[in-house]
Design a protein that fits this description.
The complex is a heterodimer of chains A (about 120) and B (about 375). Chain A has four helices and nine strands; from the N terminus they run βββαβββββααβα. By secondary structure, chain A is of the alpha+beta class. Chain A has one domain: OB fold (Dihydrolipoamide Acetyltransferase, E2P), CATH 2.40.50. The model of chain B has no long low-confidence stretch (mean pLDDT about 95). Classes of the chains: A alpha+beta (about 120), B alpha+beta (about 375).
């Protein structure tokens, strides 16, 4: 299992050809209290960099982009029902969706945990 | 906004030391939140929140012609305003549009006025140009302004400034907090009981520290200030009010005093009188939005064909109702509670119903009321 990060503050946990996607702890801290999450439906094809989900805090709406391309296999109904999971457990129970990777080589362009930490420190 | 970027408030370091996350607002670096907007919002509704609103303009208008001069610019009846009383009013342009909204207090021989931070310099120019030369307008740049809001504000503040509990809603008087002279009024922008406290900028940190030492009090940022005033149905200048909007369209008829409605003598009176008699074309209303997704400022109000017929001017998530709420301008025919309204935001249609405002009941301390 490997975890990758994007400059848009998403994390991607890869197990086999399945990737789980969410927003990072840094991102939830910046967003503030999350009050609404919209997730993609299973079966939807998402392209790397394309809009895949929506997260709204008390302050503002943000798009969540697909960090890699693939077919959505599951959205996390729990964050739709309980959006505050994104704040309380962003990199665990607060995941957004899972997808089946269509091009695993796209992962090579993403950051590992150390690189992402350096990236956040520079923000 | 100064061209050199945002200015700092007298309490800038105080906010940062308490974890305030600073953002640029109205030309100043201001704390948007400390602990989090939802927590701060609920704390204010349950206990007492301390807000720094020192970006707002505090003005003194003095001179024998001040009352007459001011009445020529705004629709309040200042002749019947007694000493130590506040009124909500608006500077109006010749078309009856709102130049700014404000609070004006008769304080002995002069008027004390609080105007919005983003518009204060324009207001000063506007008034200086139009007031008789004998009226002295002083911008009290050396004053800071705090607000203490919430059901426990009176407990906390009366410990430091005994006697404030005697103030009724929309009255003010001079007090001292820890030896610092303070003008305190029972007023605010949250819908809760509470106070606004004007003190010298040089000593505001002492006052803020004393207030924060009270167990009922936590510091509250701009984020919760916005969600609190939205629940209270209170408009925000530059968003829900502007120069193209009249007090009647904005639903602020209560600020048009009886004598002034009849006699006029303020800018835009003809249009305002006509709108009072015949009704305006559009009105500001509250909206309860279906679902959970907030609909925000800038979203369109659309008719069945998808054509734009109005605008959302404020919108967000109500922490107390746990649902999205908004303010919008809609055609007068739709401006009745229960009326169904369609909203368009980022290509998506939302259903909403016109809802009475305030969304969360006001709990002001009116004298004579229980």
């Amino acid at each position: 299992m490997s975890v990758y990060y994007t400059e848009e503050h998403e994390w991607v946990r890869v197990e086999g050809d399945t990737a789980t996607v969410g927003v990072t702890d840094f991102a939830q801290g910046q967003l503030g209290d999350v009050v609404f999450v919209e997730i993609p439906e299973a079966g939807r094809q998402v392209a790397k960099g394309g809009e895949a989900a929506v997260v709204e805090s008390v302050k503002a709406a943000s798009d969540v982009y697909a960090p890699v391309s693939g077919e959505v296999t599951e959205g996390n109904q729990a964050v739709v029902d309980e959006p505050s999971l994104v704040n309380s457990d962003p990199e665990g129970e607060g995941w957004f969706f899972k997808l089946r990777l269509s091009d695993p080589s796209e992962l090579e362009g993403l950051m590992d945990a150390d690189a992402y930490k350096r990236f956040c420190d520079s923000q | 906004m100064s061209e050199d970027g945002p200015m700092t408030l007298p309490l800038d370091e105080w906010h940062r030391a308490r974890g305030g996350r600073m953002v640029a607002f109205a030309g100043y670096e201001m704390p948007i939140q400390y602990e989090g907007i939802l927590t701060e919002h609920r704390w204010t509704r349950e206990s007492a929140g301390l807000f720094d609103v020192s970006h707002m303009g505090q003005l003194i208008l003095a001179g024998p012609e001040a009352q007459k001069g001011l009445e020529s610019l705004l629709p309040a009846d200042l002749a019947i305003l007694r000493d130590g009383r506040l009124r909500y009013s608006m500077l109006l342009n010749d078309e009856g549009g709102i130049v700014d909204d404000l609070m004006v207090t008769r304080r002995d021989e002069h008027f004390y006025m609080v105007v919005n931070g983003a518009t204060k310099h324009g207001d000063i120019d506007h008034m200086r140009l139009r007031l008789p030369a004998s009226v002295v307008l002083d911008h009290m740049k050396e004053q800071a302004l705090l607000a203490l809001q919430g059901p426990k504000a009176v407990e906390a503040l009366s410990r430091l400034a005994p006697g404030v509990e005697e103030l009724g809603f929309m009255t003010g008087a001079a007090f001292a907090i820890g030896g610092v002279p303070a003008w305190i009024s029972r007023s605010g922008y949250t819908g809760e009981d509470g106070f606004e406290i004007s003190v010298a900028a040089a000593r505001v940190a002492e006052v803020a520290d004393l207030l924060l030492e009270q167990e009922e009090v936590k510091p509250i940022g701009l984020g919760a200030r916005d969600s609190l005033r939205l629940e209270a149905g209170l408009p925000l200048y530059g968003h829900d009010l502007d120069e193209a909007t009249t007090p009647v369209e904005a639903g602020l008829e209560f600020a048009l005093s009886k004598r002034r409605r009849e006699q006029g003598g303020y800018p835009g009176w003809e249009r305002i009188a006509r709108e009072l008699a015949d009704g305006p074309i559009r009105r500001r209303v509250g909206l309860a939005v279906e679902g959970r997704q907030p609909v925000r400022e800038g979203a369109a109000v659309v008719d069945a064909d998808g054509d734009e017929v109005g605008k959302v001017t404020s919108g967000g998530f109500s922490p107390m109702l746990e649902a999205p709420i908004a303010m919008a301008y809609v055609p007068a025919a739709s401006a009745v509670p229960g009326s169904e309204v369609r909203l368009a935001q980022r290509g998506k249609i939302f259903q909403a119903k016109v809802a009475p405002m305030p969304f969360v009941p006001h709990r002001y301390h009116r004298k004579g009321a229980a």
